[in-house]
Structures are given as C-alpha cells and as structure tokens.
Amino acid sequence: MTAAPRSAFLLAGLLSACAGAPPSPVVAPPTPTTPGPGPRTPPPPTAPATTREPRLTRLENGVAVAIREATGADAQLQLGFLSGASFAAPGLAELATWTLLEDGDASQGQASLQQAVRRLGGTVRMQVGPLTTWLDLRVPGDRWQQALAAVQNALTLPSQSRHQLLRMRDELVSARVVEVRQQPLRAMARAMLLGDRSTSDYLRGLLDRDPGEVSLFRSRLFRPERAVLSLEVPGDPAATAKLLEQAGAQGFAGWRPPLPVPGAVPMLDRLSPRGAYWAPSGRDEPCQVGIVLLLPDLATTGPRTPSLLLLQCCLTMDGTGGRLEQLSREQGLGPVRWQSELVQTADAAALLLTAEMNAADAARVWPTVELARRSLRDVPPSASELALAARRARLTASLGQLEARSRLRAETGMQLRGQSPAQLEQGLTALTATGLDPQAAEDFLHLPAAVVVVGGAMPEALPGVATFDLLPTGFAPEAVATGSKAPAATAAPWLVRAIDAAGGKDLLRRCRGYRAEARIVQEKAPAAVDSLTWGDDGTLQRSRKLLGQEIVTTLTKDGGSESLGNERQTLGDAEVSTLRREFARHPLALLAAAARGELEFRAIAQREVGDRQFVVLEALGDRFDRLRLHLDTVSHLVRVVESWETLPDTTLQHVQEQWSDYRSVAGLRVPFHRFTVFDDGENRVETVFASCQPLLRAP
C-alpha cells in the first residue's frame, strides 16, 4: 500500500461528497478488535443494524459535517483531518496530534483537551493513519457542546514553549516504548502500516521531530478546509446543524484559524514494508513470530474488495484451517496455533497472526507464507473453500461495527459515498456462487505481507531477511522519562572520547574562541572572503569582502550592527541571536563548552552512513533551538552538526554542516572545511578555511 491514494484520499472523498461531487472510494477501516483463534466453521454473524441516514452539511469555514441523532446515553464526536503519517515528515502527524491533546497552560488555568474531556466524564483518543488523523471523543449526551468547544479551544490555543513541546514529545516516546516492549509484534505491525520498516525507525521518526515543525504542521494541516466532523448527539440533526453554524465561539463555524504559514507540505512515498524482519536477541530461546497481512478496505465496497477479502480468508481462516495451515504441515512446521487479531490505524488495517516457536521453525515461516499466497493463484480455491471463506469474511467485516466510534466513522463514509454494508454482503454471495475471477489472485499477491520475528538466535545464511532493532541503537528510553541528567550520562562516554580526540579537556576548557579566514562559495552566487574573530562570550568582528565591497558585522554583549561604507544598520535581537548561534556551532566552540560543563548532551541513536558509523548526541538546555552532533565512532571527531533554527521572520530552517579536513593547530584538532546544506538541499554553501586559530586563555 502506498501512502498516496490507495484509491484516493479518504478526506478528499468525504469533503467532495459533502459538496456534491462524486466521492472517492476510500474510507477509514474499523477500530481494532482482538478475536481469538477462529473455529473451522464459524457461526453466521448477526445481521448489521440498518444504517441511519446522516444530515450532511458544510459550515461556512469549510468543515464538512455529518450529523446523526444519538440513540443511547452517550454522544460521539469525531474530527478528522487530511494530515496522516505520509505528510511532511515521519512521526510529525502523530506528534502534532499528541500535542493537540496535551497542550494546556496550568498557570493560566487552561486545561488540555485531554483534561477538559475527562472533567466532562468522557474520553478522547487519537488515531493516525497513512493519510488521515482523527480525534475520537465520547462524552455524556448532554455535554457534547462543551466537548466540541474544548476541541475548538485546543485548535486555537497557541503552541506551548519549546521546552513544553519537547516534554510532550518525550512523554509520547516513553508511552510508545512501553508498547514496543510489551507487545513488540503488534507495535511492529502498526509501524509497518504507517510506512516504517521497524519500530526503531518509527521511534526515531518521533525523536527527530522538532517543536518548530509541530507548529508549522498544525498551522498548515489542522485546518477547516481539510476537516470533516462526524457527530452522533441527542436532538434533531437540523437543530444541531444550526448550533454548529453559529458564528464566533458559539458554533464550530466560528473556528477560523489564521492563514497558514507559507510553504509546501511534502507528500512522502511511504510503502507498507514487505518481506521478513528479525530482531534477534542472540540467546537460545523461543521466538515470537508474527505474520502481518494488509487487508483491503473493509468499509469501501469497491469491486475488488469482496474478492480480495475472500482470498485473505482462504489463506488464513484467521489462523485455523486455511491454506497457510495446510502448507505449514506440508513444510514440516508442525502444529502451530496461530492467534489472530486486527491491527488498525485510521485508514489502514492488517491481520496479525502470532505464535511462539523455535528459531529454526521461525526461519521457515516467510517462505511458507509466500508459498501459501502463490498457491491461491496456482490452485484456485474450491467451492467449499470459498463457502467457508465467505462466512469468515462476513465475520471479519462485522468486527469493526462492534465498536461505536468505528461504526460511526464507517457509516459516515459509506453514506457519503452512496454505499451500504449490504454491498459487501452481495459481493461475497455472488462470488461464492460464480467463483473468483482469475485476475483476483494476481491482485491479491500485490497486497503487502510480512513476517516479523522477535528474539532467539537467527540462523545464518537466511537470504532476504532484514534484521532490525526494537529500539533505536544507543537510545536510552529510561533517560527520556527521567529528565536531562540521565540522558547526559548516556552521552558522557562519547563526549569524553570526542574531547580527547579534539585535543583534551585541559586545552579545550581554555579555548575562548577562534580567529579565522575563509573563502565562501555557493551555487549561483559570487564568492566571498571572510576574516573574523569569534569569542565564546558572544562577541564577533567579521569583515566580508564581496564584489569589491566590504561588509563589517559587529556583535557586542549589548547588541550588533552591520556597516557598508558609511552606512550603518543596527541588528535586531533575533538577528543577533541567529548570528551568535551560527558561530557557536563550530565544533571547537561546542566541545569547549561541553568540556567546561556549560553544555550537556544526551545520546539519541547510532547511524550508519556509507562505510562510517556515527553516534548522534542532542544538546540539552535552551542555548540552541535544537542541535545535534554526529560523532564518528572510529575517529571520535565531529563530522556533522545538525540544527533547526528559528529565523528572524519566525520561519524554521534546517541546517546541516558537514565538517572535515581536520588539522592540528595550537594542540587542538580543528576542521578546515565545512559544507552546509539548508532545508531541502537547494541552498548549499562550501566554506574553505585558509586559517583557523584557536584563542586560548592562560593556564
């Protein structure tokens, strides 16, 4: 499954349906339910309840709305955005939604959305899929307006400070680490649905995100024109619609955020991984084995859905009695009792079959799965197989309707598309009578499938098996939850090595700045020559010669200025701060500050780039917006300084500086070459130092 339309965007379809245009055939699948191992001949499911026609409308601010009258004591509210995991950057949709739930200001008496809904006696949860993000609320029926007001307030509340957003990010990471440790196979299946190749990649995506990115994401994607609101609340739907259409804070139509921050929102090409993945422990112990099989859209009754669902059931029968079990016996895997469950995101679902076995048997599961899948093409299912599979398919399709929130979302999507649950039933009945089209098996083989093994000692020479780590290498999850001191401790051994490699703690502690001359070259711009002196107290004297002109930049403890000839201009505070951070990012300045105890780091991960391995350390405190060092694990030299800078115009800029050509100067190792890449790589700057002299205090 690609992150771009499996048929088209879910929310685009919903919004166009509300506007009267032909809708797209995609809808969010139901919420996870965990069935036990299915019987060989399951009983027929109860008939689905008749879908109630919703009242469809569009508010003046652009929000598409579907309203039903509640039949029980509780009210259901769902707000969806076209803003899933495939937008902007890995992990960003989930982090932005988490901060939407957790944002609050205790000093101002402003409760977070999570707290506000709990005080109303309700619950709220978030669901993120490849394409969409949803907030699901359930509250007492007479309090739905207060709950919706809390949602609107959360959407308009300004983002918290950088440190508060980092705290929320670490809380989310800690919660996800617990899930990975407790249910690694389920966590891996969910990560795959979101387009990640492993749980460590998924967690790294969250850790790589910066608070500035969260603000931009919310500004650009959490918007009325990208939203659909689905309500099941007491009272006449027409009266409810009038309440929503009121202006100002009285109605949801009053939610009118400022214009989005300019800039494009990239769409990532995130594919659901296929193949075999193993996280070995190296110990002689039983392995946890999971088979991850992507399901077709169960709530989108397109022409291919019944046949794909039938073939999926022929393959597994939820773990008992399907082609997979038959081929497993023939391959000598022995009696394997698969436990089945559904793993779902907002708009993608997978069947997860799990079992425990020894490493030798685990190594044979993926070839067996592939053999069983291909057998459906080579030996088409018999009439009896199709009959059993149809009964199982009806049960699978009905599982999502057991949970009220998922039922509401599925019903809304079907109604907006002019569909009904009966269409799937009719399709299954027709296929059982006529048999499958030969092309159906070919289509089925294109559905992603994977096998995940956790634990045990992986046998040698397993072609096509990718190894992975459950957690990012070098990442200390306990440190994230306990604050800055613990992360600093995990980084300490690497900092000691880096400081020693640069010349030692004694010399670096005496380093108070540097004097340098350099030639600066960038694409489509004339070259410049800099002569500068930088001090660790934030002072700078720089002369830049460009096209026969000389620009002099001066930073003092009190401010800064630039002059060209007789013209002099005072720099603003934001410009001064940006310049100071630029020169303080020099590896010499960073290691000197660390040697003096002025700057702390925490270990984030280890990464491999080409034939080199790097350990990544992230700076703590408020000296930088966000800064990371990439240390060479062999030479222990700083090779990359990565930073996220808030510019004077409040835009966020990603800067990656690659340092090389280290030379010995005054007893210290100093880099003489820097290659800087800004944002998306379109702006690249090369700096070649003719000289770089450390300035040392007296011993």
Question: Any key phrases for this structure?
Answer:
699 residues; alpha+beta; 13-stranded antiparallel β-sheet; 25 strands; globular; disordered N terminus
Can you offer a commentary on this structure?
The chain is 34% helix and 27% strand. By secondary structure, the chain is of the alpha+beta class. The strands form three sheets. A 13-stranded antiparallel sheet has the order 18-17-16-15-14-13-25-24-23-22-21-20-19. A six-stranded mixed sheet has the order 1-2-6-3-5-4, with helices on both faces. It has a six-stranded mixed sheet with strand order 9-10-8-11-7-12. The longest helix has 21 residues, at 162-182. It is globular, with a radius of gyration of 29 Å.
Tell me the layout of helices and strands.
Blueprint: H1 10-19, E1 55-58, E2 64-69, E3 74-81, H2 92-102, H3 113-119, E4 123-128, E5 133-140, H4 144-156, H5 162-182, H6 184-193, H7 199-207, H8 211-221, E6 227-233, H9 237-244, E7 275-279, E8 287-294, H10 305-316, H11 323-330, E9 339-344, E10 349-357, H12 359-362, H13 365-378, H14 383-399, H15 404-416, H16 422-434, H17 438-445, E11 449-454, E12 465-467, H18 477-482, H19 485-502, H20 505-510, E13 511-522, E14 528-535, E15 540-546, E16 549-556, E17 559-564, E18 567-570, H21 573-584, H22 587-595, E19 601-609, E20 612-619, E21 627-632, E22 638-646, E23 652-665, E24 668-678, E25 683-696
Parallel strand pairs: 2-6, 7-11, 7-12
Antiparallel strand pairs: 1-2, 3-5, 3-6, 4-5, 8-10, 8-11, 9-10, 13-14, 13-25, 14-15, 15-16, 16-17, 17-18, 19-20, 20-21, 21-22, 22-23, 23-24, 24-25
